[in-house]
Design a protein that fits this description.
- The protein has 483 residues and is α+β, with helices and mostly antiparallel strands.
- It has a domain at 2-240: 2-Layer Sandwich (Nucleotidyltransferase, domain 5).
- 35% of the residues lie in helices and 22% in strands.
- It has helices at 47-65, 104-113, 115-123, 132-142, 144-149, 156-165, 172-175, 190-196, 238-245, 299-309, 316-321, 364-387, 405-415, 427-440, 458-478; strands at residues 2-9, 13-19, 25-32, 44-45, 69-77, 83-85, 95-96, 152-154, 169-171, 181-182, 187-188, 205-207, 212-213, 231-237, 253-258, 262-268, 280-285, 288-295, 334-336, 354-356, 394-398, 419-422, 451-454.
- Strands 17-18-16-15-21-22-23 form a 7-stranded mixed beta sheet.
- Strand 10 and strand 11 (187-188) form a beta hairpin.
- Helix 1 packs across helix 6 and helix 10 (299-309) runs antiparallel to helix 12.
- The longest helix is centred in the C-terminal third of the chain and has 24 residues, at 364-387.
């Protein structure tokens, strides 16, 4: 038996999944790692900790499926991370992740000067402190010794691949989220690099998402227990992989992913640039682009609510079940879920969370339901921008939230669209594997697998529409306090 391995390097955990050629999960292992906040607004991780989590979980899948051997290992990773490394690949910084807002002043300067709009039109990436573009400028200004000592600026997937192969390489899907890739040419943008004073030599080599690299005989490469000739396929970003995983390339389909953060994406053979710079456009694969937006605040909101605010010892599933005690609309309670600032469509690192409309009649169950609704409202505030451009008939739901049918039903009711639910939550790992199949000439699966459809309820949609109008008005009203 042969199989493919998909590696999804997420924000809080890595998932390594062994799939057969039809997409059935044969083995899955995961490992978590911490997010650190050493200064206000900073969010970073230890790249070595993530590397060893990747290696140990690949080995665990390989050992479980032995004596079968993988055809290839394909990679997916969260976007917008940045690590400065020296010539030997030794990190000079921690891994600054998408939630890191230390470069807020840089982003604001770009937006106020107007140069940010030019950068956005060239790269498809809205100006925000999450981007490696802004983080590099921050390093140049605040830690010039680190900037000068840097041999390469890379992200977490490039770090893992360097440790395994000895090569600094980056796929175009990950690169298109940096803020300094020219989206039309799929090359590093000389105009942007010249403006920020960054040499192209300080960036990794660009490769196609289907490019194959190989293990080196270094100590790091030898940590993997797989056969030396196993193909390592570059793969894509987690967002691109999640869209590619459903195997549908129609422009009338939205993909909504809610994990630690959340995102709404539409796959198209054209890049969509928004005049108000509210949405992104990234390369996915071949002639396809993903257009949409991401919110900082997905399941991280529920973790915060459960563990820090309410301090409940319940399992998450049981904790969230309490929301069913409350009717749609949470009896007038509105939550703005911006506990980590916000990306699309607010694009304000200083956005903060608020419960609005609390009365003596509201209970813990109301707080939970309002938070669940708020995460969906955040996705709808992105989705409705795309709905202005494209006629959408269906939503595909991916990510960890797909385990909670009530939450997915809420998505259907808010958008007033049918939602197709996959039996597999491992969409990014499977999307990476599909790219690996193309790269290695493996026959592609014959059809979509194990989908279930949820349909919207007209009465609930009416209630949610009124609640969303309040949510949007309150978000606009609070903008002047987001400082």
């Amino acid at each position: 038996m042969s199989y493919h391995i998909g590696v999804d390097i997420g924000t809080t955990a890595v998932k390594v999944v062994g799939f057969d050629f039809e997409g059935n999960v044969l083995a899955i292992h995961s490992g978590s790692y911490e997010m650190q906040h050493p200064e206000p607004g900073w969010s970073e991780q230890n790249p070595e900790e993530i590397f060893f989590a990747v290696v140990s979980n690949i080995n665990a899948v390989y050992q479980q499926l032995s004596p079968a051997e993988p055809v290839a290992i394909s990679f997916s990773a969260a976007m917008h991370s940045l690590i400065a490394v020296d010539e030997k690949g030794t990190p000079l910084t921690q891994c600054m992740i998408w939630a890191d807002n230390r470069a807020d002043a840089v982003a604001e300067r770009f937006k106020q000067s107007g140069i940010g709009k030019d950068f956005y039109k060239r790269s498809g990436v809205p100006i925000h402190p999450m981007t490696p573009l802004c983080k590099i400028v921050w390093l140049k200004e605040k830690q010039p010794d680190v900037f000068e000592a840097t041999f390469k600026f890379i992200g977490i997937k490039e770090y893992v691949l360097y440790r395994l192969t000895g090569k600094f390489v980056c796929d175009t899907a990950i690169a298109s989220a940096t803020g300094y890739l020219n989206l039309a040419e799929l090359q590093w943008d000389k105009h942007i690099l010249d403006h920020i004073g960054l040499s192209e030599e300080k960036l990794p080599q660009l490769l196609d998402v289907k490019a194959v690299v190989h293990l080196s005989k270094t100590d790091a490469g030898s940590l993997l227990q797989i056969p030396e000739n196993t193909a390592l396929v570059m793969g894509a970003s987690d967002g691109a992989a999640a869209n590619l995983s459903i195997g549908v390339f129609d422009e009338d389909v939205l993909v909504v992913t809610i994990g630690t953060s959340s995102a709404v994406r539409l796959l198209s053979n054209e890049s969509i640039i928004d005049d108000q710079m509210r949405t992104f456009s990234y390369h996915a694969r071949d002639e396809y682009y993903i257009n949409g937006g991401a919110s900082n605040n997905g399941a991280v909101v529920l973790n915060w609510l459960k563990n820090d605010l309410i301090q409940s010892g319940s399992e998450m599933a049981r904790f969230l079940d309490q929301a069913s005690e409350v009717p749609p609309g949470s009896d007038g309670l509105i939550f703005l879920p911006f506990i980590l600032g916000e990306r699309a469509p607010v694009w304000n690192a200083h956005a903060h969370a608020s419960f609005i409309g609390l009365t003596v009649t509201h209970t813990r169950a109301h707080l939970i339901r309002a938070a669940l609704e708020a995460v969906i409202f955040a996705t709808y505030s992105i989705g409705k921008i795309l709905l202005e451009r494209k006629k959408v008939r269906t939503i595909y739901a991916t990510g960890g939230f797909a385990r909670n049918r009530d939450w997915v039903q809420m998505l259907s009711d808010v958008f007033n669209l049918p939602v197709i639910l996959s039996s597999s939550e491992e969409s990014s790992a499977w999307g990476a594997v599909l790219t690996g199949m193309l790269a290695t000439g493996t026959p592609m699966p014959s059809s979509e697998k194990f989908f279930e459809m949820l349909t919207p309820d007209a009465e609930r949609h009416k209630i949610y529409s009124a609640s969303f109008d309040k949510y949007e008005a309150l978000t606009d009203a609070m903008r002047k306090f987001f400082v």
